[in-house]
Amino acid sequence: MAPRPKRRRLTKSGESSSEGPISRVYDQDPSAPATNEERSRWKGFCEIESEPAFFNVMLRDFGVEGVRVQEVVSLDSDMLAYLPRPVYGLIFLFKWREEDPDKQEPSCPEGIWFANQTINNACASVALLNIVNNVPELKLGEHLQQFKEFTADFTPALRGDAIGNFEFVKTIHNSFAR
């Protein structure tokens, strides 16, 4: 069977055009990475890859000292034996949200800082903050230390909302958007 000849599109002026539908609808390819200007205008958190190298740079940019993220592919004792010590926390990747407000924890135990993820795509930042804000010997940096103190009496849900409004964290998080 012979290939069909391509159809030519006509522009408004009646001239033929070989432009595809993307170039007619969008100024640029919609699958192209976001520009810095687009990231800065975005009001929410951008989706980022779950990549330990990104998390390490995020922590550095947050101002956290003395901690790094290491990928773990198994929780068996042989694998865990290779992890550098101390281990401050684990981040598990799965989606779950308690929709029933009556089942949500209204507070944390004394001395525990925990934020619910209330903002879409903020999971990396929320997970990192939930870990580093519970390690007293870590130097958090000025912005995170002030945020931790400001939100100390908040509920986990309010802390999650506060993260969504924390431009310092949002800007660093969104810098990893593609």
Task: Give a written overview of the molecule.
- The protein is mainly α.
- It is built from eight helices and two strands; from the N terminus they run E-E-H-H-H-H-H-H-H-H.
- The protein has helices spanning 21-25, 36-41, 52-62, 77-81, 123-132, 142-150, 156-164, 167-174, and strands at residues 9-10, 16-17.
- The protein is globular and about 75 Å long.
- 21% of the residues are buried.
Briefly summarize what is shown.
This protein has 178 residues and is mainly alpha-helical.
What brief labels describe this structure?
about 180 residues; mainly alpha; two-stranded antiparallel sheet
Q: Biggest sheet: strands, sense, closure?
A: 2 strands, antiparallel
N/C terminus separation: 42 Å
| Topology, number of strands | 2
What percentage of residues falls in helices of 4 or more residues?
25-40%
* Run of helices and strands: EEHHHHHHHH
Structural class: mainly alpha
Lateral strand order in the biggest sheet: 1-2
Tally the helices.
8
Shape: globular
Q: How much strand content do the residues show?
A: under 5%
Sequence stretches where pLDDT stays below 50 over 5 or more residues: none
Overall radius of gyration: 23 Å
Mean pLDDT: 83
